[in-house]
Amino acid sequence: MKQESPGYVVLEVEGKSVRLPVVVGSEGEKGIDIGALRRETGYVTLDPSFMNTAACYSSITFIDGEKGILRYRGIPIEELVRKTMFVEVAYLLVHGELPNEEQRRNFSAMLNINSMLHEDMRHFFDHFPRGAHPMHILSTMINALAAFYPNVDLKSLSEDIDQSTARLISIVRTMAAFAYKKSIGEPVVYPRHDLSYCANFLNMMFDSPVKPYQIHPDAVRILNMLFILHADHEQNCSTTAVRTIGSAQVNLYATISAGISALSGPLHGGANQAVIEMLKMIQQDGNVKKFLDMAKDKNNPFRLMGFGHRVYKTYDPRAAIIKRECHAYLERTHYSDPLLDVAREVEEAALNDPYFIERNLYPNVDFYTGILYRALGIPENMFTVMFALARLPGWIAHWKEMIGSDTKIVRPRQIYIGKTPVETVGVMENREPLLQ
Ligand code: ACO
User: Fold this and answer.
1) Which one of the listed residues 230, 309, 353, 398 is annotated catalytic?
2) Between the chain's N and C termini, which has fewer beta carbons within 10 Å?
3) pLDDT computed for residue 3 by the predictor
4) CA angle, corner 298, sides to 295 and 302, nearest 5?
5) How do beta strands 69-72 and 75-76 pair?
């Protein structure tokens, strides 16, 4: 809830005083509302990469990066992981409250009704090159949804947010599994109404006509946990992309497709795949220190993947849960992954290294996630797709919040540092006019 304090700050610009109101969030975060700045002074603020800028009010997710706190709609992430299903968390993010029994049943039914992909879209998968990254396939396919389900204009969507949410969350899961099956040359497996959301996904991924898939409740539980932990993370890069693109009132599918594209970057959601690639290299080489030195070397573009975070300056609470569950799940299932030992060694070395200590660089959500996905049988090039599936409710919740507020089209200013007319005198002199 927006809370306006009686306070304000005074800014002196070229001898002129401007009073700028101080705004205070429900968790005590303070900000300066600079809405009047340009109008009153002609000045703008400069904040590349938004290191200090709050782009909006939001009541969806709260993060305290210094204390390692993450809450969705006021509920600690640890509690949600222990006591809820991903589908309930999706409902919570989009609607603001956990569903009651009837709402949960209705939402689950809607997920089932909307789980089938338009049959004509299935043929699209045949025309992507073998080896195409599933994230590229996914963003393209989601964009194409608007052609098959054209009722995605702002008005219809706002009237039927449940239907649109359910369709996206459900259909994207089907698409992701189809993309995987196509990539390995196997027939697609259709969704089943008798399975829960996560069980259905695992079944679509791994069932085959020659070897029926045994759904293990423990695997479903782990996937459910991973999806909850990834479901939202306030104004991260992909969510900001969703809010920005959405502010131009483009259709919801194009908006989500933009989020998927942003997520695919190695500095964002693509890091979970990059972590496993890095751990394999370290395992092969056997020299952890060498990789740490490479990460510290400013002339080397190598970074310790799965480490560091724009907001967390302490242990990422999601990483703490995943690390614990990763260890326990591997033990329970007697699954041995040498990369877990490598990861532990890298973590310990980094957490004792002054470079990482001084910069508050800790493992982030992606550091242990890939090892769990490997244990579930998910191939590496699908890791970021898994992240995208989990993040959908968060993107939709932010999109809904954004269109429900008085947001104008997102359009930052800039400080121009290019040539002035004085520097281009004579450049156009010898050209004939094309227009009279
Ligand atoms: N390895 C080595 N050094 C690092 C790392 C890292 N992983 N992360 C940050 N640093 C260093 C930077 O070089 C910089 O050092 P300097 O002050 O000497 O110049 C300092 O720590 C601050 O880092 P920035 O890059 O300024 O921090 P920023 O907030 O812009 O970046 C990011 C955050 C992108 C996550 C960064 O830590 C990173 O690249 N990590 C590796 C990729 C990764 O794991 N991404 C997933 C993030 S979680 C997510 O998106 C789901």
Assistant:
1) 309
2) C
3) 46
4) 35
5) antiparallel
